[in-house]
Design a protein that fits this description.
By secondary structure, the chain is mainly alpha-helical. The chain has one domain: Recoverin, domain 1 (Orthogonal Bundle). Helix 1 crosses helix 5. The chain starts with a helix and ends in a 7-residue tail after the last helix.
């Protein structure tokens, strides 16, 4: 069951990234930030500076729209946790895996839903 859930999660993130390719590199106000938004210079990798700037832009955008604070924002993966091979760059696969892992952890921490 865990493998199936992980597969579904990765499939969802991959689908989101494919859809995001059709749009400009604007920071979305909801959901995972697409790789193309993080990779500002379009070199195929995300640097720590690019990662920081995209996350700061997302927070500024939410504040300027007077949105309530985003859920789990404090739990968002930092650059070092995404850079699993430690080369100072995050690939598209590393980002997908990190975002999927974070979504799974966020869901696990919600507990059972009351119906």
């Amino acid at each position: 069951m865990k493998k199936f859930t992980k597969f579904i999660g990765l499939s969802f993130v991959a689908a989101m990234l494919l859809v995001s390719n059709a749009y400009a590199t604007e920071v979305p106000d909801r959901g995972p930030i697409p790789f193309e938004v993080f990779d500002a210079n379009k070199d195929g990798a995300i640097t720590e500076d690019e990662h920081t700037k995209a996350r700061e832009e997302r927070l500024k955008q939410a504040q300027s729209q007077n949105q309530r604070m985003m859920r789990n924002v404090e739990n968002a993966p930092d650059f070092k946790s995404l850079d699993t091979d430690g080369d100072g760059k995050v690939t598209k696969l590393e980002l997908l895996e990190g975002q999927n892992k974070q979504m799974q952890e966020n869901r696990a921490n919600k507990g059972p839903r009351n119906k």
